[in-house]
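Note to self: the last two entries modelled the partners one at a time, which told us nothing about the interface. This time every component goes in together.
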Amino acid sequence: MPDQPSSKSHRAAPAHTDPGQVPLLGALSALADPVRLQLVRDLAGSEDWTRTCGSFDVPVGKAALSHHFSVLRGAGLVEQRDLGAKRVNRLRREEFEARFPGLLALLLRPDEV
Amino acid sequence: MPDQPSSKSHRAAPAHTDPGQVPLLGALSALADPVRLQLVRDLAGSEDWTRTCGSFDVPVGKAALSHHFSVLRGAGLVEQRDLGAKRVNRLRREEFEARFPGLLALLLRPDEV
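The predicted structure of the combined assembly is written out below.
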């Protein structure tokens, strides 16, 4: 395998889905999971691009967490960027709201468990 | 087992969940399934109490269909009554809307797949 001197990360850049192309069932399936719902809520309370993947207090290992983020990207909910060895996140509030108006607001109501 | 001369059905009456008590994850999980989404949409296009459980064109067997209706009852989406040997259904539009405003409308948009 060749060296990759220009990158601090060996990972491929994360693939994203255009929120406008997300099927309804894909969005519902992505959100119908307690860990992913927690990630979305935590991101909603954070500034864009300030949260690394390791900064979330969720009870899953690294591989499972990577899968959850992949599902959230696929549902148009989360955008990720690699900054050196770190991957940082933002919630795609405006794009997801345009695709499914009101859904994010339901998830983020303070009285929901 | 004693005879049940006053009932044409040997089934227990269906148990329902108060829509006001449905957790968000329960509602999302109930809806994140293509068969249950189809049942909800078909019910939305039908008069209350006109649809028997066997009247839906979904690609599942009787036991699976019974499970899907149980999940929909548990999510506060569907109310069922036994009329003799038949079980009839209605969508709990108002109650579910009060619990999760706007969610049912998202599911029922005509352009969603």
